[in-house]
Amino acid sequence: SAHVLGLDTARFNSCLDSGEQGPTIEKDIAQGLHLGLAGTPGIFINDYFLSGVVPYDTLREIVGQQLASAKSLN
């Protein structure tokens, strides 16, 4: 909750209730859906798209492959 995060709860609730940021949020959601993002987390590592929770070892392996690939191009 906003309180647990240490936010100004009155200000947070006022912002939330006003709907002022609704169009910005809808735009971001539409952009994410256009990119194939259906939820969080979503991670892009160059041409690799990983959706959902990904084990650390998998992330490390893909990043290592990408770094090795970049070094071989130089």
Characterise this structure.
With 74 residues, the protein is mostly helical. 55% of the residues lie in helices and 11% in strands. The longest helix has 18 residues, at 56-73. It is elongated.
Unreliable runs? none
The topology string of helices and strands comes to: HHEEH
The average pLDDT score comes to 90
Structural class comes to: mainly alpha
In total, the number of strands is: 2
Shape descriptor: elongated
Radius of gyration: 19 Å
Biggest sheet details: 2 strands, antiparallel
What would you say about this model in short?
With 74 residues, the chain is mainly α. Helix content is 55%, strand content 11%.
SSE layout:
Elements: H1 9-18, H2 22-34, E1 42-45, E2 48-51, H3 56-73
Antiparallel strand pairs: 1-2
Annotation keywords:
single chain; mainly alpha; elongated
